[in-house]
Amino acid sequence: MRAADLAVSYPTVGLGTSALEAARLLAGADLPGLIVVDAAERPYTILPGTQVLRLAVPAYCQEDPALARVIDEAHADTFLRDLADRTVAECLPTPERELAVVAPDATVLEIAALMARTRSPLVAVVDGRTMLGAVTLDALLDRMLAS
């Protein structure tokens, strides 16, 4: 089976998209991440959902989990609201990682190797300049376990 056979339509966001809108899309569709596209609608990078959380959770709570425990639940629930003033571009990991993109004829093993190497829960399938869709980790594992 090839990437083109596994690819499904997948939502994308732009670099200027609100980080809060991206978080809502992730949650609303139970997505592991998002494909960020450039102005020409070509894949620019993959934004894992954890990276959106990383921007929303204060750095002091990430560095010292004990501090996260002392914040009451009412205030803890408001952290995602702070994403409204930030963009997807601000959520992107630095330094930039290898772009998780494969050609339509990529094999299941090639897709798995790319996901493992890039630590990406999804891979964009691109034919020339056209994005055909994406392969998610879930779909890839389903395919591999069915064999």
Span between N and C termini?
11 Å
Radius of gyration: 17 Å
In CATH, what is the class?
Alpha Beta
CATH architecture: Roll
Question: Given the C-alpha coordinates, what overall shape results?
Answer: globular
Structural category is: alpha/beta
Q: In the CATH scheme, what's the topology name?
A: CBS-domain
CATH homology group: CBS-domain
Biggest beta-sheet profile = 3 strands, mixed
Pfam family, one: CBS
Keywords: CBS domain
Protein name: CBS domain-containing protein
Organism: Luedemannella flava
Give a written overview of the molecule.
This is CBS domain-containing protein. InterPro entries: CBS_dom, CBS_dom_sf. Keywords: CBS domain. Residues 93-147 form the CBS domain. The mean pLDDT is 87. 42% of the residues lie in helices and 20% in strands. The longest helix is centred in the C-terminal third of the chain and has 11 residues, at 108-118. The protein has 147 residues and is α/β, with parallel strands linked by helices. α8 (108-118) links the parallel β4 and β5 (122-127). A three-stranded mixed sheet has the order 1-2-3. The chain has a single domain, classed as CBS-domain. α8 (108-118) packs across α9. The radius of gyration is 17 Å and the shape is globular. The protein has nine helices and six strands; from the N terminus they run αβαββαααααβαββα. The chain starts with a helix and ends with a helix. The protein has helices at residues 3-6, 19-28, 49-56, 59-63, 65-70, 73-76, 88-91, 108-118, 137-146; strands at 12-14, 33-37, 43-48, 101-102, 122-127, 130-136.
